Amino acid sequence: MHKNLELVAYIFGPLILSIIILQLVFGALNFYNTARSPTYKKLRLFALDADRGLAEQGYLWLSILTPIMYFLVFGSIAWEGYTPSLSGEGFKKFIELSALPLALLSLCIPLSVLIARVHATHQTSIQIETTRHKNNMDAYYAHRKAMFEYFGYLKEIKYPGDITGDFNAHPRLHLRFFIDKGPSNGTPEVNVEAFETSLKTVSEIQGHIHKALLHKSDLNSVINNYASACTKLIELSSTLHLPCVYEELVTRQGFYTLCQDSAQPVDADLKFCSLGKGTDQLIGAYRYTRSFLRVLCEFAGYDVKFFNDKRYYSVDKGSGYKSDPYSFRDISDYLREASDISVNNKVARYDRDQRAQQAATFTGG
Predict the structure, then answer these.
(1) Are residues 191 and 123 in the same domain?
(2) What is the pTM of this model?
């Protein structure tokens, strides 16, 4: 048992002793340097620090000191009973006796070289990661800057209804239409869902305007489609951050609560905000929003084939929305007519509710 413990001590003792010595040395150096500079970054024995030189790496000194300690420990066993002799025979005997200790000592060379290579590789890895991070940051902000510059090249355009559309991209636009995973992840990806949703909404608005302006449409169809077009246009312009539409064209006077059927309860009334005061401003708001979205699609490299569809060409371009097959009447005329009918329907509904209430009271009595 005693021999086994002694063997374990010889095997692990030099390594443990080397660690203790280096910990004491590093502790003393840390204490001294911290006293001189509170911001001093402490040395650590079991760590490869890419910010420090090779001479400050604990593993390097451990790879040197440990073989020396093994050399001394196993050498003391091999040299027991011998005295130094500075002669040819003495050196010959020393080499003969010290084969194992010298072999252990020689390990410091390959171990230190290995540590040096590992340290260099670690530094290279850190440098690559730092470069990648910087490149990703540059790419991210370059993409944002490119978007603002792309929109900045476009001048203001006059649309029907005396609407002046500018093409100043709001920073939130980048967050809404690109998948932002943070600057460290580089150029953001296109948010396909946001583009698809917006294009679908534009298509729906286009269809609602077309149906609302057809001269064959009855009053309820005109108003319902107009209300849907306004509601969706306000929502989309808000997403694209176009205050010219969702703020300037929306007023308190433009809020409607229309009773289209006196037989229906109050909850069934049509509630919506109108855009502007008539057909021209509705068309102008739609075309401005549509143009802005097209520019955004072009910048993102998203498919713009929808904008080349000429199904409702007069709604998208020109003044054809004022001629056949569209009505010559302005949408504001329909709104006034619908409002008058709504007042009569509300009165009729009120009278009906009052009679029903009186009848219930009389029956109950």
Answers:
(1) no
(2) 0.73
